[in-house]
Design goal:
globular; alpha/beta; binds flavin-adenine dinucleotide; binds uridine-5'-diphosphate; Rossmann fold
């Protein structure tokens, strides 16, 4: 039998793998973390360009209602006061998001909640809608025709690559809708960006832990397995089981980064382009996540695209077909003795960062037979 130098082989240095490795190390266990990418941190990783932390895998804003999770991440790096307030550009006109009194004023010049409600209701009444069966009907029955046509339809169809009439209603329910002048995109109590970037969070979690980058677990699976007593797997669960029940599907993204010789390009971190005709869904200007004053700026155009095997799997498609395939893999994973599955790829689930941290901490406490660390419900 080969010598097992490590207690845990952690496949994937994203937030799930990093939290697990940190917690296991704190309990005196020895971990080896591997990643197929050339950097640690998975999708929260940033690249520093001209002094600006560029969110290479799309805008990442940390938000949570759970003080335990907020204090946990702040113990590695202090967070700033960034509040996400994206702006929508529809055919050259600008609107505040999420849908709130500022948006309603910009659309119709209404000044009070009563006027806004009456305007929306008059549009809903004209449509004679029944029980909403898809995203289009759900959106129309909540916000009326103007908001749907200008701010939802084009963006949603670009984002998901199919007509809104073929999408499930729940996608739109994530978006806040309020009758106050409040442009905060999230309802959570705590929100911010790590001062100095997300890499500080990951570096803090992985400090002193063995890390090997540019290594795909599946290229030398036997050798990696032989190095540790147990495996923590945060990659794709269908690949782990050689796709025996078929491939899980994703929605992918393409990012076009540009360094511009201007100090301030768009005045906001995120501007959504909600018309169908503009091919990208949004433009990020990274310096605004950290109130940067650098002489240059980096912007990113985000394009949504179909996923193929060569592309990064970003959003799981939790429809009936894929959920069925996933439950087959999950059944196998639950029988494993020496393998812990976690994170968005292994659990085929859209997790926000605070949910990933909570889920990793819960898995740690179950695994080590401890109390659940006072964690609240993060779903
Ligand atoms: P990942 O970050 O994907 O990490 C998995 C790691 O495993 C990767 O580094 C990968 O290279 C590695 N890996 C996979 N397979 C192998 C293998 N075979 N061998 C070796 N290594 C492997 N959350 C928020 O809270 N707020 C936001 O604003 C937000 N915005 C987002 C925007 C976008 C565009 C996306 C896609 C996600 C966003 N999220 C946001 C979610 C956030 O990215 C996730 O919650 C978090 O990154 C998931 O961490 P993870 O460790 O599960 O996965
Ligand atoms: N959405 C929209 N218009 C916008 C922003 C979002 O119609 O300007 C819809 C769209 O269907 C999207 C959903 O709301 O898929 C959720 O948006 P959110 O920004 O929460 O999702 P993200 O893409 O950041 O995960």
């Amino acid at each position: 039998m080969s010598e097992q130098k490590y207690d845990y082989l952690v496949v994937g240095s994203g937030l799930f793998g990093a939290v697990f490795a940190y917690e296991a190390t704190k309990r005196g266990r020895k971990c080896l973390v591997i990643d197929k990418r050339n950097h640690a941190g998975g999708n929260v990783s940033c690249e520093n360009i001209e002094g600006i932390n560029v969110h290479k895998y799309g805008a990442h804003i940390f938000h949570t209602n759970d003080k335990v999770i907020w204090d946990y991440v702040n113990s590695f790096v202090e967070f700033n006061r960034y509040t996400n307030s994206p702006v929508a550009n529809y055919k050259g006109e600008l609107f505040n998001l999420p849908f709130n009194m500022n948006t309603f004023y910009q659309l119709w010049k209404v000044k009070t909640p009563a006027e806004a409600k009456a305007k929306i209701q008059s549009q809903i009444d004209k449509m004679n809608l029944g029980e909403p069966a898809n995203l289009e009907e759900q959106a129309l029955s909540l916000v009326g025709t103007d908001i749907y046509e200008k701010l939802i339809k084009g963006y949603t169809e670009k984002q998901w690559g199919r007509p809104a009439t073929e999408l499930p209603a729940f996608i739109i329910k994530r978006l806040p809708f309020r009758f106050t002048f409040d442009n905060n995109y999230f309802n959570d109590k705590y929100q911010g960006i790590p001062i100095g970037g997300y890499n500080k969070l990951i570096d803090g979690l992985l400090a002193g832990i063995d890390l090997q980058l540019n290594n795909d677990y599946f290229d030398e699976r036997g050798r990696w397995d032989s190095l540790a007593k147990q495996v923590v797997f945060t990659g794709k669960i269908d690949q782990f089981y050689d796709y025996r029940y078929g491939q899980l599907e994703y929605r992918s993204l393409r990012f076009e980064h540009e360094l511009l010789d201007v100090q301030n390009y768009q005045g906001n971190a995120v501007i959504n382009y909600t018309e169908r005709e503009i091919p990208y869904t949004r433009i990020l200007e990274h310096k605004h996540f950290e109130f940067g004053t650098q002489p240059k700026t980096v912007i990113t155009k985000e394009y949504s695209q179909e996923w193929t095997y060569e592309q990064e799997p970003y959003y799981p498609i939790n429809d009936v077909k894929n959920s069925g395939i996933f439950s087959e893999y999950q059944r196998l994973s639950q029988k494993e003795q020496n393998i812990i599955f976690g994170g968005r790829l292994a659990e085929y689930r859209y997790y926000d960062m605070h949910q990933i941290v909570a889920s990793a901490l819960k898995k740690v406490s179950v695994h080590f037979g401890e109390d659940n660390l006072g964690l609240g419900n993060n779903n």
